[in-house]
Every structure is written in structure tokens, then in C-alpha cells.
Design brief:
Layout: H1 4-26, H2 31-52, H3 73-89, H4 92-120, H5 124-130, H6 154-159, H7 163-182
Helix pairs in contact: 1-4, 2-3, 2-7, 3-4
């Protein structure tokens, strides 16, 4: 029988699409919350973009760029994006559902990825001792200067198709704005 982390890994993307549909249905956007939410989403997109331009998945342990501050900058970026959309939704139930989804889906996925990284990269244990899982360090981990891409790589960003997060976020904001202007609450 598959573990919960395997199930969570397999179904997180389809669940994300279902969640997005429910989100759009239940959201009650307003201009101010859209503007505030946009700031968080933009920060999250920047974090994810920077992380994707430093990671060589399954080939090398990423410890440079945002990975010198947090072991999971992609997930931290996703959290910032989620916070932005929670704010833009102006709906407490969306906030609760997002928190449940993060705890039930993303924490097990993060743990499974850490297990893989420990087995694939012997240096991961030392890295994990110095770099926090999610909340970033104030200063970059100095040992992080010798692994991963030392500078942002647009080629890696494109290879990882991280632009899809930008496109999806812009579409979501577009639908929120349409909903807000067409259906007054």
C-alpha cells in the first residue's frame, strides 16, 4: 500500500486545479484585497523564479541563491502566493481550506523529498543542519557557494517551466477582477 506522502505527491496538482475552481467560486474579491494579495503573489513568484533558476533537479544539490537561505524556496514561494490569493479572496473558509491542504498535502511531500535528498546527496545532512526547512536564514549559508548554479540561470527557469506559475497567477487575478466587476457582492 502506498504511503500518504506518495499519494500526496501524485494528487497535489489535480487537487490544486480542483481547489482553484472552488476558490474562484467562493472568493469575494475587492480592489484593496486584490492589490494587497498581488504584492504577496508577486513576492512568491519572484522567490519561485529565483529558486528555479538555481536548481538542477536530481543532478546536484542546490545550495546557492535562495537555497542558501531556505531548503525549500519553491514551497516558500508557493506559500507566499497562497497567502496573496487568500487575502484576495476575502474568505475565511478559503484560508482554512488552504491551511488544511498545506498540512495534509505539502508537508508530507516536503518530508518525502527530504528523504530522497538524504539518500541521493550525502552532503544534504550537513546542509540541512545549517539551512532551515522553510523560514529563511538572515544570512546565506556560506558553504552554499560551491554547489548549484552560482548565478540565476534563465535556461533553468525555462526548463523547469516556472513561467506557468506566473501565467496561472495572472489568469487567477484576471478571473477575480472579472468576478468582482461583473458580480457585485
Amino acid at each position: 500500500m502506498p504511503s500518504w506522502s506518495r499519494i500526496a505527491t501524485r494528487f497535489r496538482v489535480p487537487l490544486g486545479f480542483l481547489f482553484a475552481a472552488a476558490y474562484l467560486w467562493f472568493a469575494h474579491p475587492g480592489w484593496l484585497v486584490i492589490e494587497i494579495g498581488f504584492v504577496f503573489v508577486a513576492l512568491g513568484l519572484l522567490m519561485r523564479a529565483a529558486a528555479s533558476g538555481h536548481i538542477r533537479k536530481n543532478a546536484q544539490l542546490a545550495t546557492t541563491g535562495p537555497y542558501a537561505y531556505t531548503r525549500n524556496p519553491l514551497y516558500l514561494g508557493s506559500i507566499l502566493i497562497a497567502v496573496g490569493f487568500i487575502i484576495a479572496s476575502r474568505n475565511l473558509w478559503i484560508a482554512v481550506a488552504t491551511m488544511i491542504m498545506f498540512l495534509a498535502i505539502y508537508l508530507p511531500v516536503i518530508r518525502a523529498e527530504e528523504t530522497y535528498l538524504r539518500s541521493a546527496f550525502p552532503e544534504y545532512a550537513g546542509y540541512a543542519e545549517h539551512v532551515p526547512r522553510l523560514l529563511p536564514r538572515r544570512t546565506p549559508w556560506k558553504a552554499g557557494t560551491d554547489a548549484g548554479s552560482p548565478v540565476f540561470s534563465g535556461e533553468l527557469y525555462m526548463r523547469h517551466r516556472e513561467y506557468n506559475a506566473l501565467i496561472g497567477s495572472l489568469l487567477m487575478f484576471g478571473v477575480l477582477i472579472l468576478k468582482m466587476t461583473w458580480y457585485k457582492h
